[in-house]
Amino acid sequence: MAEEREELSWELFGTASRELAHTIAEDGFAPDLVLSIARGGLFVAGALGYALDVKNLHVMNVEFYTGVDQRLDLPVMLPPVPNVVDLTSKKVLIADDVADTGATLKLVRDFCLDHVAEVRSAVVYEKPHSTVKCEYVWRHTDKWINFPWSVLPPVVQRSGQVLDA
């Protein structure tokens, strides 16, 4: 029997991101910039940026997952790393798709802490074992999540070889 998974469609993602934005706004937090954790956080950051009327979006590339439930020992920041001058004294909203172990969010939050006025995190999903408890969470789950942007295999491999449909 296949493991039950959390299914997020594009339509449900639209609902989730809008509800997450309402939660942030109702809490009174008005970020100066949204810092997305690439790759999954790009979608969340873009949606929140529009909904919260924040045009200042930054990206932090972090590699941690290598496959379904497979990850590196520690998350690794990939270049280009944001310039801390761009973050100084700002209210920063870190956006990601999921707080699974919390290791990626902790790395990014720790990177920000000494430079920003305030930092908070928003995720679509948070798992119970996450070491980082986000201020803004759409749903809690302990299941593996099928996100609409990553459920299908790549169209091309990194080597450029086209895959069969």
From TrEMBL:
GO molecular function per UniProt: glycosyltransferase activity
Name of the protein described by the UniProt record: Phosphoribosyltransferase domain-containing protein
Ranges for domain Phosphoribosyltransferase: 10-151
InterPro entries per the UniProt record, alphabetical: PRTase-like, PRTase_dom
Key word Transferase present: yes
UniProt KW keywords: Glycosyltransferase, Transferase
Leader peptide range in chain numbering: none
Domain of life: Bacteria
Pfam families, per database record: Pribosyltran
Keyword Glycosyltransferase (UniProt): yes
